[in-house]
Amino acid sequence: MFNVDYKSLRLSFNDFHDVSDKDMPEYGEYCLLELKTGDYTAGGWHPSGNGRTAAGYFLRGTADTVDSAEVARWHSLDRYDLTDSLETEGVNWINIGREEEEGDRNVQFEDFKSFADRKRPKEEQFCLLIMKDGSLAAGRWNKWRREAGGAFIYSSALASHSSDDVWAWTPLDSDEIFEREQERENEKKREKKLNKNPSADPALFRYGTDIDTYYEKALSKLREKYYWATVTMMKKKTPVWQIAPLHGKYVFGQISKNYFDDSDIVTPWTEGNTADEFIDFLCSYAADTVEHSNPEEKFRLGTDIDVYLETAFNNVKKDYRWLDKKMLEKTWQYDIQRIDGDLEFVRRFRDEDEYSVYDVQSAEQFIEWVEQDYQSTALRENKAVNSYEPRFGHVDLHGWNLERYVFYKMESGDYKVSVTAGDRTTGGSRDFFITPHCFEAKTYEEFLDRYLEIVPGHSFGLGKKDLLPDKELKKFLGY
């Protein structure tokens, strides 16, 4: 990359600007900062008010700022390109800014490291960076969760410098964020050490430390009321309970994953002190799920999947007259399979290898879900041949904005409407079939009454007062 050896390189920052002189950088300029404590960090300048005073803050990341009152002096990082010096062999000292004769005006940084040597900063460590394009930068290190590498966060909205763009880095001084992260890491190490040989309360773990033993005992009690109960049904109530070490002791707990580092978070059961109390708790915890998992209700039409699919197809065909079974070959495939000993409705998309469980409580519920899939397929297969978009102003949908509202006439002669809404960060679209029942209305006003039962104005933006005066829409719909 460059000819300079980063291991022996020293950067000498000269000619700092004193905050006490109200000599501040340009708005947004990223700077090396010397704090009044003598520590060094960095940030982008954001002045307060009209910007004519030294009041303001240096932004280091989302909710991560340094008030100007904490800063003694600053030195720009944005104004320098070190490429020429870094491409010169034998260089081990680079001056940044005009060199001062007085030693206390000069600050040096060394001990640079490189990702090329598989070295990474500690999590949340703020670092001075030499970029591969020869520029200077800084940022707080965040490793990526599930892959190698990471990024240096330097501004709001997680603006960052990728590790791929950094030639060399060296840590700046620690701060509260880094110290909290270090304490968290130390706590994880202490917890790991404590949990090597956890103890078990004899009253709480009277029946041992195999969680299945407690589920089986709870199952025996549940079967007094729900004869069809199984452990598989009980564990549909999530999260399931496990036995895990916490602070050096076994506990009944629920385990979730920490989003930032994928470590386990154990939430202990605290509603009792004995094994039998936990078993009673398991019964109450899973009772509602078991009650609604009665296979006689779920498979009321038997265990031939075609019976359920034929019922769903015939129900959808009543309104979606163009639907045929060849269309359905391109979408979801369904089956009834035994999963962990229990029969389940399962489905997979046509290109997928494995089925996933379709967790429903009754035959009717399964049929309804299949009908929704069939309806979506039918709309996708019926091409639009004409469209009309009503005019509308700003429409607020409970925090989202209505973006598009389009009526379509389809190849079959039927109609649908597509509604799109969103905010500054997210959004979505939804299609609605306008059923033949709506068009059985004798007047346009009566049609709208029926239509708005499918696409209510309070939910999707346009109501009767918006649509009734629209003569072009009336004509487009055949009235």
Strand line-up across the major sheet: 2-7-3-4-5-6
Quaternary structure type: single chain
Gross geometry: extended
Structural class: alpha+beta
How many structural domains are formed by the residues? Answer: 4
CA(first)-CA(last) distance:
72 Å
Number of strands: 25
For the report, how would you describe the main beta sheet?
6 strands, antiparallel
Helix amount: 25-40%
How confident is the prediction overall: mean pLDDT? 92
- Radius of gyration, in angstroms, nearest whole number: 33 Å
Strand % is 25-35%
Q: How many alpha or pi helices?
A: 14
- Which stretches are low in confidence, meaning pLDDT under 50 for 5 or more residues running? none
Description:
With 479 residues, this protein is an alpha+beta fold. It has 4 domains: 171 residues, no CATH class; 83 residues, no CATH class; 84 residues, no CATH class; 93 residues, Nuclear Transport Factor 2, Chain: A (Roll), CATH 3.10.450. It is 26% helix and 29% strand. The chain is built from 14 helices and 25 strands. A hairpin with an 8-residue loop joins strand 4 and strand 5. The longest helix is centred in the middle third of the chain and has 19 residues.
Describe the structure using short key phrases.
about 475 residues; alpha+beta; 4 domains; 6-stranded antiparallel beta sheet; 5-stranded antiparallel beta sheet; 25 strands
